[in-house]
Specification:
Elements: H1 4-24, E1 30-36, E2 39-45, H2 50-55, H3 59-88, E3 92-100, E4 105-112, H4 116-121
Length: 123
């Protein structure tokens, strides 16, 4: 039997993949969600487009990719937070994001208003 925590982590990952496909036209190669204490951490692998992979080979290009991704993140942060709130039934207090132009990974961290991990262990 799959634990409530593992099930929720998988559901959140799937929701993020679907949103990315709807917004950008393609999703990450791999998405994994981790629930740890009052945090929901989502790790995306293979997020760079073909064009971005070319750009990150030079210093100016890396800065452009990071800037563009930050602008996009700000545009869609409400959508990301809504996914976390919908699936966890917790309020998102803050969220943070970064992308690695070396590995093509992006990470999203959401701080929620409850000790979600403990709540899931009780179910």
């Amino acid at each position: 039997m799959v634990s409530a925590k593992k099930k929720l982590e998988a559901e959140i990952s799937e929701a993020f993949i679907k949103l990315q496909r709807d917004l950008v036209g393609r999703g990450p190669q791999e998405t994994k969600t981790y629930i740890l204490q009052d945090m929901v951490i989502v790790r995306f692998k293979g997020v760079l487009t073909v064009e971005e992979k070319h750009l990150v080979n030079q210093d100016h290009g890396r800065k452009l990719v990071k800037q563009m991704r930050q602008v996009l993140r700000e545009m869609y942060s409400k959508n990301f937070e809504e996914i976390v709130e919908k699936y966890t039934q917790c309020k998102v207090l803050s969220s943070h994001s970064d992308i690695s132009t070396k590995t093509g990974e992006r990470i999203e961290v959401f701080i929620v208003d409850k000790e979600l991990e403990k709540l899931l262990e009780q179910t």
